[in-house]
Amino acid sequence: MTTDRSASPKPTPAALGYALPAEWEKHEATWLAWPHNETDWPGKLDTIRWVYGEMVRKIAPGERVRLLVNRRADADLARRYLARAGAEVGRVEFVVHPTNRGWTRDSGPLFVRRGRGRRAETAIVQFHFNAWAKYDDWQKDRRVPETAARLLGKPLFRAEHAGRPFVLEGGGIDVNGRGTLLTTEECYLDPKVQVRNPGLGRREIEETLAQFLGVTNVFWLVAGPVGDDTHGHVDDICRFVNPRTVVLIQEKNRRDINYRPLAENWERIQDLRLEDGSKPEVIPLPMPSPLFFDGERLPASYANFYIANDAVIVPTFNDPQDRFALGILGDLFTDRPVVGIHAVDLVLGFGSLHCLTQQQPAGA
């Protein structure tokens, strides 16, 4: 007698009570990947390693850092850089797993959680990273969630829709931990450019997000700033800072190429309602002056901050707007210090602090 496997599908994370917590909730660890790909930061790789030292110096006092390295020798190299930067190396766990790049927000383990306090349990969802549907070298990065699940002894859910792998990056979404998720049409609904899930529309994507991330309310912004290699990741545009407040980047210079698409986001967000039907508070976050490398506009944005247990680290760009952005975020995050980290060199790789990090929420 044969068994109809389709009649008994595997339960999804949401069906088992898991959901994606907000970034400001307590972490067990932050995941990073030691930089090694010269093409990401042409001529700047050594400088980027010092930026990592500063990141770990700010993150490690409040939580463990799990750092992916290609081989043991790279762990020794990273340890020397981190120690000289004054980071707490004893709070860094080196995980040997070869990677193609270091953008852990997108390729790393995405943790969901069920329960609270001593009953909290975490699991990992694998969203089948494919290098933003743009590059050919992603095979090592795609396996990072599997390595994390084995290392930590966590359940691993492989995201899919109608039996096909479902592609999503952590930088393409932001949540308030209460059921609402932000994303963009440019990133996941464009039918021609960097198409992650061919043939899937808004309804199918929202259904899959609900099943694997436990969200109940998806809000679509329009597009991101020019120069974003990911084609519209929301973590360069709009971020929750608490369950009822978002910051949204704003370009005031009408002659800037970013003015129109970012203004469309401001028009769209007037319609945003939270999971309970209420309207959130929306706080404007300035844009720095344009940054270029070799004639190409870079996606410099203060929205690419990372919320660690003991600090909020914010990219800065040697720009007069730095202090305004830090002041706005400082007023919003009153439970932990807001600190700037120089990111002019970092953004040459078309990403910044949030793109490099992935939080592991605290479990039992």
Task: Describe this protein's structure.
This protein has helices at about 45-60, 70-85, 105, 130-135, 140, 145-150, 185-190, 200-215, 260-270, 320-330, 355; strands spanning about 25-35, 65-70, 90-95, 110-115, 120-125, 155-160, 160, 165, 175, 180-185, 215-220, 240, 245-250, 280-285, 290-295, 295, 305, 310-315, 340, 360. By secondary structure, it is α/β, with parallel strands linked by helices. The protein has a single domain (about 15-360), classed as L-arginine/glycine Amidinotransferase, Chain A (5-stranded Propeller), CATH 3.75.10.10. A hairpin with a 4-residue loop joins strand 9 (about 175) and strand 10 (about 180-185). Helix 1 (about 45-60) packs across helix 2 (about 70-85). The protein is globular and about 50 Å long.
Topology:
Layout: E1 27-33, H1 45-59, E2 64-69, H2 72-84, E3 92-96, H3 104-107, E4 110-114, E5 121-126, H4 131-134, H5 139-142, H6 144-152, E6 156-158, E7 160-161, E8 164-165, E9 174-175, E10 180-184, H7 185-188, H8 202-213, E11 217-221, E12 238-242, E13 245-250, H9 259-269, E14 281-286, E15 292-293, E16 296-297, E17 306-307, E18 312-316, H10 321-332, E19 338-342, H11 353-356, E20 358-361
Parallel strand pairs: 1-2, 2-3, 5-6, 10-11, 13-14, 18-19
Antiparallel strand pairs: 1-20, 4-5, 7-8, 9-10, 12-13, 15-16, 17-18
Helix pairs in contact: 1-2
Mean pLDDT: 95
- The dominant shape is globular
CATH topology grouping: L-arginine/glycine Amidinotransferase, Chain A
What gap, in angstroms, lies between the N and C termini? 43 Å
Based on the coordinates given, report the CATH architecture: 5-stranded Propeller
Kindly report the spatial arrangement of strands forming the biggest sheet.
Answer: 3-2-1-20
Unreliable stretches (pLDDT < 50, length at least 5) are 1-7
Helix content: 25-40%
**H/I helix tally:** 11
What about the largest sheet? 4 strands, mixed
CATH superfamily (homologous) name: L-arginine/glycine Amidinotransferase, Chain A
Provide the number of structural domains.
Answer: 1
Radius of gyration: 19 Å
Number of strands: 20
Reading off the top of the CATH hierarchy, the class is best stated as Alpha Beta
* Structural class designation: alpha/beta
Please state roughly what percent of the residues sit in beta strands, choosing from under 5%, 5-15%, 15-25%, 25-35%, 35-45% or over 45%. Answer: 15-25%
